[in-house]
Amino acid sequence: MRLPRRRFLHLAAVAIGSLAAPGLASAQAYPTRPIQVIVPFAGGSASDVVMRILLDRMAKSIGQPFVVDNRPGAGGNIGTSAATKATPDGYTLVMGSTGPLAANRTLYRNLGYSPDSVRLQGIDA
Fold it and tell me: From start to end of 1-125, where are the E strands?
């Protein structure tokens, strides 16, 4: 028996949806506590100021505060390295930029982390 393409796509969508449903039912509310954001640049720098403005808007929209942790040094490598070593629970974020994630690969022998291991997410505040 041959299924028409449209029917096959409908069945595939239902199958995928049913696989995802148990995960949705057991999902917990996020966030339930403050979120730490590591800014790998000095406090008062342009990167820090812009990040704080974005985080203020985000805190209002999600109802949880963001705690900024400035960890400057080595072109952003120190803060980015600290973030890659944090527990991957979604409560530690890092402000990424082209320095620590791209350019520093050619500038430093040992970054202290693998740029490929950093999961990139965009923010829209």
Answer: 35-39, 66-70, 92-94
**pLDDT score at 97:** 83
What single letter denotes the amino acid at residue 84? T
The pLDDT of residue 125 is: 46
What is the distance between the alpha carbons of residues 71 and 77, in angstroms, rounded to a whole number? 9
The stretch 6-15 carries a mean pLDDT of: 57
What sign for the dihedral angle of Cα 58, 59, 64, 68? Answer: positive
Element (H, E) at 15: helix 5-25
Cβ neighbors of 47 (< 8 A, separation 6 or more) are 39, 41, 95, 97
Residue at 96: amino acid letter: G
Mean local confidence (pLDDT), 77-98:
89
**Which residue has tokens 């028409």?**
4
* Reported pTM: 0.72
Closest CA to 76 of 114, 46, 117, 41: 41
Percentage of residues of the chain with pLDDT beyond 70: 74
CA distance 100 to 111: 8
